Amino acid sequence: MTSRFFVVALMSALVAGCSSSKGADANKSLPSELFSSAKKVIAARGEGPVAAVTPSRDVIQGLTEPVLQINPELAGGSDFLRRIESRSDSSGQTNEVWRSSLKANVFLRNGVLVGTRGVGSDIISASAKNTTRALAARSNGSGVRSYTISDGDLTTTKYEFTCRYENLGVKSIIVAYQSFNTTHMREICVQTTPDNNTITNDYWVEAGTKTVRQSRQWVSPKVGYFQFKLLRK
Length: 233
What we know:
The protein has 233 residues and is mainly β. Helices cover 11% and strands 47% of the residues. The protein is built from three helices and twelve strands; from the N terminus they run ααββββββαββββββ. Strands 5-4-3-2-1-12-11-10-9-8-7-6 form a twelve-stranded antiparallel beta sheet. The protein starts with 31 loop residues before the first helix and ends with a strand.
């Protein structure tokens, strides 16, 4: 299901992340402590559920490029992604591409998941306009969302949802040993076709900015949810 993505796969180097205007340093690798932690988790996979990796304070302080941690809830473990592209579109939204150590990609629009490649049951495309608007305004409201999900072969299934957005108030969170004042936003979506399933996405939006510092977002029926932590932006 996640064979090429999150196998706690830090076995290849985390090349220096960059925006589209910078080149990557192919010789830059993960701090050794983070690499060692990943190997220990891999070795323990046969013993039960795999724990998420918790980098040390020294490792976090040593990061010099944007890094996004993703913890897949069903598969367990963690991966650490580098940002390979960041650009703003005509509507003022920031579109980012983050790449895993096994070359899978995650696409975020203002922190909202709109695509994946290499997961095994990928988001081919997803709408995000109503979601990003609600997060920016920190407002209650409603809207619709749609996802086109790969079935794992050459076919796709479209999932359509009616969503409501809730401001759950101010929340202080700790990410990478730093405290951030955030607004906790929740998105509750009920599927309109083909079933009446419900998904719930949570976002912690940093005060004074539109930065989503932490989130829990649905990927697909087979993959489940990913937890996102922006360790360095």
